[in-house]
Amino acid sequence: MSITHNVEQWFTMKKRVLLLFVVLAATALAFSPLSNAIASLTVYGYTDQTFYKPGDTGILKFWIYNGGTEDLILKNLTILYPWYNPVGLWGGNDTIIPSTATVIPAGGNWSSTDSFTVPNDGRVPSGSSSIRISVFTDKTTQSSTISLSVTSVPFYFSLQNMDQLTMWLTILVVLMVVCTLIIAATIFYSLRTRQMMWKSEEKVQ
């Protein structure tokens, strides 16, 4: 009787272990396609110039690469330039929405360009900054940054109407010379007058 009971327990335990194995295998198979179908986006880009001065116009070129195993539908993308302000008064942001359904196949890419003008009113400091691109698809979202360099404009002292400036400088020099001669003549005349007065007084005495 005990032998039969032990055999039944062994078979029952074996069935439980087998059932647990089947459940684990089914779970692994169920999640396997999901793990293989994880979307992967990478954004590459650069500007058409090494650096810009305030007031310059440039072109941003960028590529969106689908490194996943499934096709992605591009919904829209947002570009934020360094002079962007969340209040929205300064501009500096662009949103690109494809006119038709844009599919980025697995292993494929999609590229585009965007033009911009660097403000010349102090909204962007000189030096290196970043342009942020955020990509939105039907399965995932990805953000990336692209370097942007803005150089300060050197100050040059420009002289305009040089003929007039030369004329005024000449007049100023002539006036200084005339004034000097007048002062010298006045001093000479004063000394001469005093000298004549002293001689007259000596004769009277």
Q: Would you identify the regions where 5 or more consecutive residues have pLDDT less than 50?
A: 31-36
- Could you tell me the strand content as a percent range? 25-35%
Radius of gyration: 44 Å
Residue share in helices? 25-40%
Mean pLDDT: 80
CATH hierarchy: architecture of the largest domain: Sandwich
Overall SS class = alpha+beta
Write down the CATH topology of the largest domain: Immunoglobulin-like
Question: Which of globular, elongated, flat, extended, rod-shaped describes the shape?
Answer: rod-shaped
| CATH H level, superfamily name of the largest domain | Immunoglobulins
**Biggest sheet details:** 5 strands, antiparallel
Number of strands: 8
Order of helices and strands: HEEEEEEEEH
Distance between the termini: 174 Å
CATH class categorisation of the largest domain: Mainly Beta
As for the number of domains, it is 3
Number of helices: 2
